[in-house]
Amino acid sequence: MKPPFEDVVRDYIRLVYFFAKKSLSQQDDIDDAVQETFLKAMKAYKDFKFKSNGELKSWLLVICRHVITDMFRANKNNISIEQNNIELFEDSDVEVLLEAKITHEEDVKKVTSALKMLKPAEQEIIRLRINEEMPFCDIATALDSKEPAIKMRFYRAIVKLKESLL
């Protein structure tokens, strides 16, 4: 059964917000992208058929990616693209990722630094898989890639992360 659209907004606004934040640096641009994503989703929601919440997440992220692309095309000079590695992880996210309690501030800084050394695309895959608990097939759909490629990039990123922490 399809949940009311208000529940979809409540449940997924954080995910869409952070997805937009990875590409945009100005708060106004991020807010516009999130608002436009949910407006487009609301218009198409009655016709959208999904089998799982994972498909719903992927659908919203695909819409958001298209909105951001449209923003770039329409306003090349007015949209601020984040040029540096984007801090996609909070300290609590890092703890979940490593499935360990990091109690020293120095350890937290070391792990955060190691995460920032990964490519932004690798950071996003790790965040979607670990923090958002998305299955690989849904991540692949959201990032317009193939599932085996997403799995490989995820595991390679984890290996890089572990190596940099040793």
Walk me through the structure.
The chain is 70% helix and 0% strand. It is mainly alpha-helical and 166 residues long. The protein folds into 2 domains: 5-74, Orthogonal Bundle (Rna Polymerase Sigma Factor, Chain: A), CATH 1.10.1740; 91-165, Winged helix-like DNA-binding domain superfamily/Winged helix DNA-binding domain (Arc Repressor Mutant, subunit A). It is globular, with a radius of gyration of 17 Å. The termini are far apart. Mean pLDDT is 78; it is low at 79-104.
Work out the helicity level.
55-70%
Largest sheet: number of strands, sense, barrel closure: none
Give the CA-based shape.
globular
The total strand number stands at 0
Poorly predicted sequence stretches spanning 5 or more consecutive residues: 79-104
Structural class: mainly alpha
The CATH class of the largest domain, by name, is: Mainly Alpha
> What is the gyration radius calculated from CA atoms?
17 Å
Instruction: Please work out how many helical segments DSSP would assign.
Output: 8
User: Strand share of the residues?
Assistant: under 5%
CATH architecture of the largest domain: Orthogonal Bundle
